[in-house]
Amino acid sequence: MPRQITTRVEQWPLATPFRISRGVKTVAEVVTVAVTEDGVTGRGESVPYPRYGESGAGVAAQVAAIERAIADGAGRAELTALLPAGAARNAVDCALWDLEARRGGPSVSAVAGAPLPALVTALTVGLDSPEAMAAAAAKLADMPLIKVKVDAGDPETCLRAVRAAAPRPRMIVDPNESWDFALLQRLQPALAELRTEFVEQPLPAEADAALEGFAPLVPVCADESCHTVADLDRLAPRYGMINIKLDKAGGLTGALALYEAGRARGMGIMVGCMICTSLSIAPALHLAARADFADLDGPLWLKQDRPGGVAAEGGRLIAPAPGFWG
């Protein structure tokens, strides 16, 4: 009997607005894919990202275009020829991982590695006025790791306000492509003084050639510049780290390959996410257990998450309930 594929575009309201240099988000739009075979269903979720020309309707259309192939038995190995890396492939890939495990195949843990019972994740301080960012940081002052969103306006003042309010946590700085090379250079002493772990994607992806030959005081991590293994030869002379997101890599399958290729080049690894539900986070946890940093607080921004999803305790994510995914 052919498999059945169900695709849904869902809206998940946020508890508070999420601000970065590109704008403000109040609702998370996700696409869920369910693949059913012999009465067993595997689920996957992705987040379409307008930065890469994606939308919920567009991702659903991409999945619809390959439904027949999936119904006829195409698996994860065939997906790379059916869909480009991105949100659509991520949702289908993760649904197939889940389906394989539920139908008696190897568990995801057996193949990809077991998630840690409690994983330290970055907790995000959104972009706002220095005073508002300091107030938000003060609430996270006892957490192990924070990530601070900034733009090109007055990032040093914002970062100093955050660090004064939260002197203990390790700190990541994320300008979301809003800086130019001159600003990155100028801020090096301050970034080092403020004990910044690394700066994530400071320059626009199309302008990051300026990083070649640059010796920063604080490591630089590629996010928007890094999608798949094919990017690494270009990125290795520019960045010391990469941020692996399943939505960019095209699922857990692509993310695992990117992890191995990045490690082979001696690059640091962070596993990140978009604003999403725990159905997106559950696959990423298997990879994050082996990474240097995790930034997987997407579900914590929602008014309500899926039942049985991740929980947060003291800046750590607690894995979903047994049977949730994989």
UniProtKB/TrEMBL annotation:
Pfam families: MR_MLE_C (PF13378), MR_MLE_N (PF02746). Coiled coil: none annotated. It comes from Sphingomonas quercus. InterPro entries: DgoD-like, Dipeptide_epimerase, Enolase_C-like, Mandelate_racemase_C, Mandelate_racemase_N_dom. SMART domains: MR_MLE. PANTHER family: D-GALACTONATE DEHYDRATASE-RELATED (PTHR48080), ENOLASE SUPERFAMILY MEMBER DDB_G0284701 (PTHR48080:SF3). Binds 1 Mg(2+) ion per subunit. This is Dipeptide epimerase. Residues 130-221 form the Mandelate racemase/muconate lactonizing enzyme C-terminal domain. Its cofactor is Mg(2+). The lineage of its organism: Bacteria, Pseudomonadati, Pseudomonadota, Alphaproteobacteria, Sphingomonadales. Keywords: Isomerase, Magnesium, Metal-binding. Its EC number is 5.1.1.-. Belongs to the mandelate racemase/muconate lactonizing enzyme family.
